[in-house]
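[[Per-residue structure]]
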Amino acid sequence: MNQKAVYPGTFDPITLGHEDLVRRAARLFDHVIVAVADGGGSKRPFFTRDERVAMGRAVLKDHGNVEVTGFSGLLMKFVRSQKARVVIRGLRAVSDFDYEFQLAGMNRGMYPVVETLFLTPGEEHMFLSATILR
């Protein structure tokens, strides 16, 4: 069975915490798609989507079952187009959980066959965020 997972985010920029989650997800799934979102809404990325995709590809190049691609629009439409069954979300702190829990419920309502899997980064990356890096 070919298990495919999508790890979405703005990755502005990609961090060691993101890389840690991708590395661990790549051990769990046959194929991991790092889906770089346009941004929009309240998110105004510093780097363009193409720059963020290029950074992700450079950082993750040694992971043979990982693909980095950009997307726009609804995440669940993208997930469906990729024939994925899992969405990976990272949690750094308890404060992330409430928002992510609500998002997972909304996504399940849109596309019930997709499961959301929450992963936490290693302790050394827990307090690192892209916002802080910028």
Remarks:
- The first strand starts at residue 4 and ends at 9.
- The mean pLDDT is 88.
- The longest helix spans residues 94-110.
